[in-house]
FAD-binding PCMH-type domain-containing protein (Lentzea pudingi), 260 residues
Amino acid sequence: MSNSGGGHLSRRALIAGAGVVAAGGLMGQERAAGASAGPSAAVRIGPGDVRYENLVRGNNFRFTGQPDEIRVATSADQVVRAVGDAVRAGRRIAVRSGGHCFENLTAAPEVRTLLDLSAMNDVGFDERRQAFSVQPGATLGQVYRALCAGWGVTIPGGGCPEVGAGGHIAGGGYGPLSRRYGAVVDHLYGVEVVVVGKDGKARVVVATREEDDPFRELWWAHTGGGGGNFGVVTKYWLRSPGGGHLLPPVPRNMVQHVVF
Ligand SMILES: Cc1cc2nc3c(=O)[nH]c(=O)nc-3n(C[C@H](O)[C@H](O)[C@H](O)COP(=O)(O)OP(=O)(O)OC[C@H]3O[C@@H](n4cnc5c(N)ncnc54)[C@H](O)[C@@H]3O)c2cc1C
């Protein structure tokens, strides 16, 4: 677990212990704030809260931010609301999923709202889009295990099982299988992402690689440029281009084995 050292509770265990409930996915192409079907607001944790010290740190203890609030979201609608609140209040936002950032991008002193998506960690298959869906808080270990056990497929991602899909996929994602299958983003079909429009309102947009998708450029912006530049990803869809396998099959043998 990311924060298991030094006697700290892990972030994931803490969130699970708080009884946060995940809400359902989105069906529409675009949904504006206020359409929440599940719990309407993300858990809000301030510096005076006993949970703050545990949640404020990511994996990299070199950098620790001092945000005014940590919002622990469990649905895209909660992310929309948290982003909308921050924009209205003029608070700079950073989003953290797996907490394995090398730099202080989520812990910069200017960050006033830290959006924690580690509890959004579902991995599944979306029949409608015929693609595997991965929420950003899923660790690579969770993704590999779910894809392997459920469907016998995998992605050519990194070897550290605790890295989060949230930052890893938008950054490209490479690992031991990359010489054979490319980077993870070569298999990225689409993203569900919370963006802020010209009107200053936060909304959910689905962007895919389909040629006629009006948001195709937004999909493209998530194929290696890194996370947090264009919006908050609340779901990735993975499907290899062309026909054949939906994703690469799991290798028959593994020379190196990671524990997760
Ligand atoms: C021990 C270790 C091993 C690694 N091994 C590999 C490897 O083998 N291959 C490889 O390709 N990379 C590897 N990396 C790099 C890793 O993929 C990146 O650091 C990645 O960005 C981490 O993602 P995260 O969600 O865990 O981190 P976070 O700290 O949560 O986020 C990292 C960045 O992505 C942004 N971000 C996170 N979630 C979202 C979201 N939902 N929407 C928008 N932006 C978001 C954050 O704002 C931040 O800028 C490794 C990193 C570490 C620390």
